[in-house]
Amino acid sequence: MQLSGVSYLDVAMKTLAHVRETQREQIETAGKWIAEAIAAGGFAHFFGAGHSHMALEEVFPRNGGLVGLRPMTELALANYTSVTGSAGILQMRFLQEVEGFAERIWAYYDFKKSDVFVIFTNTGITRVSIEMAQLAKDAGHRVIGVVSKAHSEATGVANSLGKKLSDIADLVIDNGSPPGDATLPLPGSPWKIGPVSTIGVIAIVNALACEAARWLIELGKPVLVLASPYYEGAETAELRRRAEENWKQCIAEFNRRLREELRVR
Fold it and tell me: Which domains does the chain have, with CATH numbers?
């Protein structure tokens, strides 16, 4: 494929088409599981490291985000854009492969038995994500894995569990990206440019939220989503006021669920 911006957009749309055409059943099932966890008063917990952490930023809180989706954010695995020096990319790469790190993260959370987990690793082999999935599975939770099936199938395993995410998860959703993630060849180079995993993953996150909302309505449960408060001027003052009230309601409900999880312990 010729290298150009438009070519990248073509590949991006092809990735989304792949997700739509091949992952519909998986998204419907995962959305149902997430809705059941929310309906039970708990959460669907989202976890990922490195660029997979971008999925967590799309979960909640964000405009249009569904209350009941909870990002398990670990700063050391997410903030590496300084590249070098403090909190650099090499430190993050090291930490995400440290065996036992997931146990340290897990120890500071509380969960209800009905909670579900959505774990992201594009390669399917990131140690901290594999271990988090195994901890959730061992605790009796449903585990949904989001991976690049093509990359996961193209690589071996180098962790003490001897597993990939697809070996642990109860349900696997393919984000549609190729091995190595990048898509367009660079003339004169063995490497490619134009990664697409984030596009697939972000679409999957929002598809899961929408599917969960549909199931919650079918179950007769309330659906709370954050509304955008970013309106200015007299003509939109009432819209802004209502949106700010919505934010208070959504955050209060999120905190109520956190307190409920604490009571489980």
Answer: 5-226 (3.40.50.10490)
- Rounded CA-CA distance 243/255 in Å is 18
Per the listing, tokens 């690793």 go with 121
- Round to whole Å and give the CA distance between 258 and 109: 10
Cα–Cα distance, 49 to 249 (Å, whole number): 30
Q: Rounded CA gap, 204 and 80, in Å?
A: 24
pLDDT, one tens digit per residue, over 24-42 is 999 999 999 999 999 999 9
Q: How far apart, in whole angstroms, are the C-alpha atoms of residue 136 and residue 156?
A: 23
C-alpha torsion angle, residues 138, 59, 174, 81 (rounded to 10): -100
CB 95 within 8 A of CB 77: yes
Closest among 244, 242, 208, 214 to 60, alpha carbons compared: 208
Compute how many other C-beta atoms are within 10 angstroms of the C-beta atom of residue 97.
15
Q: How far apart are the first and last CA of the chain?
A: 55
Encode pLDDT of 90-123 as tens digits: 999 999 999 999 999 999 999 999 999 999 999 9
The token pair at 192 is: 């490619």
* Measured distance CA(200)–CA(60) in Å, rounded: 18
Distance of CA 233 to the CA centre of its chain: 35
Inter-residue contact 144 to 171 (CB < 8 Å) = yes
